Amino acid sequence: MSFFLEHGKKLASPRLSRREFLGFGALAMVAATLPRTALARVSDVPETERSLDFYNIHTGERLKAMYWVQGEYMPEPLADISLILRDYRANEVKTIDVRLLDLLHAIRTKLETRQPFHIISGYRSPATNSLLHRRSNGVALHSLHMEGKAVDVRLPDRDLSLLRQVSVALQGGGVGYYPRSDFVHLDVGRARLW
Length: 194
What we know:
By secondary structure, the chain is of the alpha+beta class. It has one domain (18-193): Muramoyl-pentapeptide Carboxypeptidase, domain 2, CATH 3.30.1380. 31% of the residues lie in helices and 21% in strands. The chain has five helices and eight strands, in the order H-E-E-E-H-H-E-H-E-H-E-E-E. The chain is globular.
């Protein structure tokens, strides 16, 4: 695992139960059989690997993960990504949909950046989502965050409107634009804009 706090101390990761470990393994096996999507083919050069960098603004954790190599999703990096995108309020982890990771990779490739995605919100437990829904009408009651299919992010070296524009052009799912809160919502649900 590659988790570090901002000041350099290594972060102990929560232990996975046997059921969670098997679930991650099953996800990796299923993901490995999925066809490559149009999102994955951003350039004409064949890819041999896909990686993502994250910075969780709430916990200070950082992660660099090569999650796809030679056409296969890697179980350990997928588990690491699910961990950094966990519901930090409830300390609950949910498997993140690989289509969302491929979308983030496509966005990062199109924007030609190596900066980490700053995570505003990844997975949300139903309790956390309900709490946030009561506080803000901008939080959907049945949010895709609860399914591991949505993330709210920004990139420190790219204008938020450019991040939105590229995300919309890729047509990978829903794109919500929140300039006052300085993030873009991305999900792999049906294509829609707000």
